[in-house]
Design goal:
This protein is α/β, with parallel strands linked by helices. It is built from eleven helices and ten strands. The protein starts with a strand and ends with a strand. This is Universal stress protein UspA. Belongs to the universal stress protein A family.
Length: 274
């Protein structure tokens, strides 16, 4: 894990992500890239192409660069290689473009979640990154004084398309020497017998050099609720799962378990795109 990207809007949620990123970077000798997307009003976007407000745009950019430098000097970041990046772009679009042109091993984002009509209509930049990023995304929902991941809950249906991202789960688990708890959530619409579920997981893990792990079936009315309840029951420090990255009408009608968890979980959530 050489490079960790942490987008910041200078909010307390972003600061909480930076603090976690510092702990991971020190543990693994990683570089942190702090990136701020300077979203400009429409008239200022026009200014970039020739109007008279360019000095004002540059003032905002300079202020953002100064703020990033002040973050870089925080004591908990001492000893970590920090790169500061300011881009004139929309938050999600800019982050996505940066990822496409620069290899990152992990993205860490803070999120306060959303609910009700805001969740349906506007969502959040964190959710959009979770949905589309080819790089694993760690979402921090609350302040974490010590990011000591002793218990990781990985929830899945353990289908064949999960195998590639699952290796990244094992790599993350190895980094923290965590206890890995595999769980299959069975709902009324996706019921499997205990025998069938154990066979699926046994076949799945046979392709990997597995650490010590446990596997359980958890019955619940829906998958999201099942994952959250199981994670609480097992006192998990981290919830890990894979996302299909649905977009458009498919996403609107079927929803995304990963995005729902990003919104509603209080524990950190680590997602891997299939």
């Amino acid at each position: 894990m050489k490079k960790i990207l942490i987008p910041t809007d200078f909010s307390k949620y972003a600061d909480e992500a930076i603090e976690v990123g510092a702990q991971i970077a020190k543990k693994n000798g990683s570089e942190i890239i702090l990136i701020h997307m300077l979203e400009l009003p429409g008239q200022m976007n026009d200014a970039i192409t020739g109007a008279t407000s360019i000095p004002e745009v540059m003032l905002f950019k300079r202020k953002a660069e100064e703020t990033l430098k002040s973050i870089k000097n925080r004591p908990y970041l001492n000893g970590i290689k920090i790169t500061e990046v300011v881009r004139l772009d929309g938050a999600y679009q800019g982050i996505n473009n940066y990822i496409k042109h620069n290899h990152m091993d992990l993205i860490i984002m803070g999120s306060h979640g959303s609910a009700g009509i805001n969740e349906i209509i506007i969502g959040s930049n964190t959710e959009k990154v979770v949905r589309q990023s080819e790089t694993p995304v760690l979402v921090i929902k609350n302040k974490v004084n010590e990011f000591n991941v002793q218990n990781i809950v990985f929830a899945s249906d353990f289908s064949k398309d999960i195998k590639k991202p699952f290796q990244k789960v094992l790599d993350f688990n190895k980094l923290f020497e965590s206890k890995l708890k595999l769980v299959m959530i069975c709902t009324p619409n996706s019921f499997k017998s205990t025998t069938a579920a154990r066979k699926i997981v046994s076949d799945f893990v046979s392709d990997f050099d597995m650490p010590e792990y446990t596997f359980e079936i958890h019955n619940e009315s829906n998958i999201e609720k099942g994952i959250l309840n199981y994670a609480d029951e097992k006192n998990a420090d981290l919830i890990a799962l894979c996302t299909h990255g649905r977009t458009g009408l498919s996403h609107f009608f079927t929803g995304s378990i990963s995005e729902d968890l990003v919104n509603h979980a209080t524990k950190p959530v680590l997602t891997f795109k299939i």
